Amino acid sequence: MDKIIIHGGKRLEGDVRISGSKNAALPVIVSSLLTDGWNIIHNVPDLADIRTIKRLLSGFGAEVEGGKTLRVNAGGITSCEAPYDLVRTMRASILVLGPLVARMGRARVSLPGGCAIGARPVNLHLKALQAMGAEIDLRDGYVEARASRLKGAKIYFDISTVTGTENIMMAASLAEGTTILENAAREPEVVNLADVLKGMGAKIRGAGTEVIEIEGAKTLRPVEAGIIPDRIEAGTYMIAAGLTGGDVNILGCRPDHLDAVTTGLKETGMGIIPIDGGLRVVGSRDVTSVDVKTLPYPGFPTDLQAQMMVLMSIGGGVSVIKETVFENRFMHVNELTRMGADITVDGNSAIVRGVSGLRGAPVMATDLRASASLILAGLVAEGTTGISRIYHIDRGYEHIEKKLSSIGADVRRVKG
Ligand code: EPZ
User: Could you read off the pLDDT of 312-359 as tens digits, one per residue?
Assistant: First the structure.
């Protein structure tokens, strides 16, 4: 298995361009299932998860062509089964459930199973589809769903679930009547999907707020759409600049999607200046320790918690990081501790006492964002860091070692 080797201590400077958002591209690509004809999707990132969703749609019989500009035609789908061997590699596969039931009247989707950061059930997705008239059975580890035609319903999500909101918004776009989603997720990726569905002919109001109203259509037409920049990738590079006392232009990002991140990073002493086409990020010599609490958007994103922990590990004081979204998202703590960080986990809080510096070490990635935090730690650590199981990183960061090298990092991928 490949490894990433980093020689730390290099100051990052220059321009880095942000790719399309993984978490926006996945639901937008899946939404092609709702239409009969060629959908054209621009700014799709080159990631393992994107290759997985393309394989999934091809398995249904959809035609899928292209890369950064993707063309998908689901006019001739014949199968409605999402197999375990694909779903287990990417939980977001559950996003096909709603569109398949809405368009084809049936679906058989493997239950995703747990993952490193938590049980991550899909009960809210299923409960909402049942409220819309779907018959749901759980059999042999699969969800089997059937509905002659979904009906609009009023749905309250006990937890504001991102893919739950996206799944049901897609299903509701072809349902009979109006669906109201309350306590809906407000993420920019939800808004990107809503814009695409509107382009297909669905009538959607309130995307980006906690109440979304969808008036279903009898059929939806294929569209040409664009994917928003990846705010989590952008935040990761902002923190990399801060960690190394660097001066980096984060180009192609959407600063308006990063308010909580920008506010938090400024409190640590970083300079964050809006520039043409993005943000200029300047690291400070001394990092101020701040407390962090992850929250659904527009709060501080859970997907940047691990990366922020690295910055706090070299802070000048003590930082309390509270993870409120997932129940087990501190898998990176043990590895960071091995690099000299001083972190104590207490339930869903981590107490991070700043140390003078980290030391390179062989470490192992456990999940996508934890692997990003290990790379960040390697950038600032003294000596060499070798990161194994980097297939995790390839799921969500496009060409990360090339992008980091282009701004001065000493990082390379070695075939394992
Ligand atoms: C999306 O996951 C993202 N993935 C995650 O990004 C992100 O961390 C998460 O939202 C939170 O922002 C994609 O968009 C593909 P949730 P999702 O449903 O939708 C509980 C990354 O690194 N819940 O918003 O799966 C759940 O267990 C990934 O790119 C239920 O209990 O997350 C969690 O505690 C990691 N029942 C909370 O809600 C349900 O039916 C929020 O989960 C659904 C969710």
Answer: 999 999 999 999 999 889 999 999 999 999 999 999 999 999 999 999
Give me the percent of the chain exceeding a pLDDT of 90. Answer: 95
What residue's CA is closest to ligand 1, atom 14? 23
Ligand 1 neighbours, Cβ below 6 Å, are 22-23, 26, 91-92, 118, 120-125, 159, 161-164, 185, 302-303, 325-326, 368-369, 396
H helices present in 116-247, as ranges: 123-131, 162-172, 188-200, 231-243
Domain boundaries, the chain: 3-19+229-414, 22-226
Task: Kindly state the average pLDDT of the residues 234-243.
Answer: 98
Mean pLDDT estimate for the chain: 96
Q: Helix %, strand %, coil % for the chain, to 5?
A: 35, 30, 35
Separation of CA 117 and ligand 1 centre (Å):
10
Please give the CATH architecture assigned to the domain spanning 3-19+229-414: Alpha-beta prism (3.65)
Check: CATH 1.10.10.10 for 22-226?
Answer: no
Neighbours of 139 (CB within 10 A): 8
Q: Tell me how far the alpha carbon of residue 297 lies from the centroid of ligand 1, in angstroms.
A: 12
